[in-house]
Amino acid sequence: MAPLSGESLLIGWLLLPFMAAFLAALLPPLARWLALACCLATAAVAAAIQAGALPASLHLLGPYGVALQPDALAAPFLLLNALVSGAVVLDGWRRPMPGPFLLLLMVLHGGLASAFVAVDLISLYVTLEVVGISAFLLILITRSERSLWLALRYLLISNTVMTFYLVGAAVVYLEQGSFQLAAVGAAGAAALALLLVGLLTKAGLFLSGLWLPRTHAEAPAEVSALLSGVVVVAGIVPLLRLAGAVPALAEVLPVIGVASAGLGLLFALVEADAKRLLAWSTLSQMGLVVLAPVAGGLYALGHGLAKAALFLLARRFPGRDLAGWTGRPLAAGLLVPLWIASLSIVGVPPLLGFFAKSGLDRALPGPSGLLPSLLSVGTAAVFARLWSAPLQPAALPPSASVQADPAWSPGVVLLLAALVLLGAGEASRSWGPALAAEAAKAGLVLAAGMGLHRLLQPLRRSPWFRLPDLEGFPDLIGGIGVVGAGLLVWVR
Amino acid sequence: MDAFRLLALLILVALLVGFVGLLLRRNLFLKVMAMDVMGSAVVALFVLVAARTGLQSPILLAPAAAETATTSVPLADPIPQAVILTAIVIGLSIQALLLVVITRLSRVDPSLDLDSFEMGSGAAGGRR
To answer: B77 to chain A: nearest residue by CA?
Structure first.
């Protein structure tokens, strides 16, 4: 028998989650192990890509067929997918999972893995729809009336923008006779604008991403972790790939990114609900990811790991209302991970978020390199509200606690360990005097953020301190329309 | 104006009508129907793109029939047709899922009005 080539290994890896999902439907007791195996395989592929052991591109079924590119851009996203899915599986290891949760998780995992490596418009369309449908079914997993409406809203929006995306793909084919991402640049502004509407909405950016906060905040905690950790970046990866292939995008995308980061921060600072605060912060951080395609992968990895950990922790928050946050003590198993994960998002040194942020600073030209730091001040002020909870004394007898959860969730521990270890790996690679200046800057950002938090705290009691509600269904569709029309006029 | 441009324009109109319907209709069922109008417009667009080179679908004939058939008929471009077949299947399954959810939602409000599902700004958060 011939040795397995890199290509057949890749195809086997892409098929594995779907096969595992079928098998899990037949043999439910195996489901957890199968899901874990899928995550391990994805992590191994990410490592193999970094090591250069796999073919960099793969064309199936001829020139009009499926084009895959498991390259260095995809590697951090694949690792993110593996770690977040793995953490969600581990987090629920002791609890009975509702119905087909693990099966859907595997399908979602497989869809995401394919979306991260696909480089032709049609494969991307199919994988993004697989991701959308499985995310929809995951939101529905609790079967409450509220989740019915949320899931309906999610799929309706997602399918509508994918319709625009498909029109864009048709125009690209009409002009260029090809569905490759590389052909988009020469296909004209209208095609690009239509494709962008689809991808920007999927990625939860700016006005077209207004669907994100309510969906991410109201879904069950495990699903929120998946949605905010990896599902949003399914739209980011094609955007980053397009930014490399289309010069016109290089001036559009940073502006949308900054606008999105500002919008998300503004709403997060005013928000009164802990889970919605996390969701608005996702919208803001996605804006930073698209600022620079070179640094985007690492940034998305840092953010996704930390945000997934925060959402997994949110399941055990004593309440979601931030107004009484200082009066409700949190257990050490909750408060310490909360601190570590949110410090990483703010960009405090030994953690991965710091290296992601300094990479972003370096990738941006001239004075715009200060922009991420300025926005990080706002991020620090956002998370300062979560840090204000006191530590619960550990004297509580274990028999009094009702829930059988261990004090430290294994999934959260996995995510935090990844944040620390990957941060250490980055530190050993890029250690130098420039890093000390970056660390000092991070300290200043943190202090400024705390100051801003102190400044805003008294204002929150006044009745005028609130923003308009932009999350009604007509607002979402209107936001998509505004972004689409703006792009049609703007992109040249 | 040639036929291709006219048809493309009509498809664009259908797409926009669907989008406006999605924005303005208050009834959830009609919103999903509006989305379907958009989907149909895209299908028409791909069929139109495929028909630029010819109208005959490029289907392989049996050897005996192939000898007798006239080979001069211009064939349609198979690539967009294959692509849209995939998209139709995906669109159909999404439509089915959405309609199932709508049947469940109709137990909450049989008139399926948007407002009865959308909570006010303050009430949305703050509870688990």
So the answer is: A177
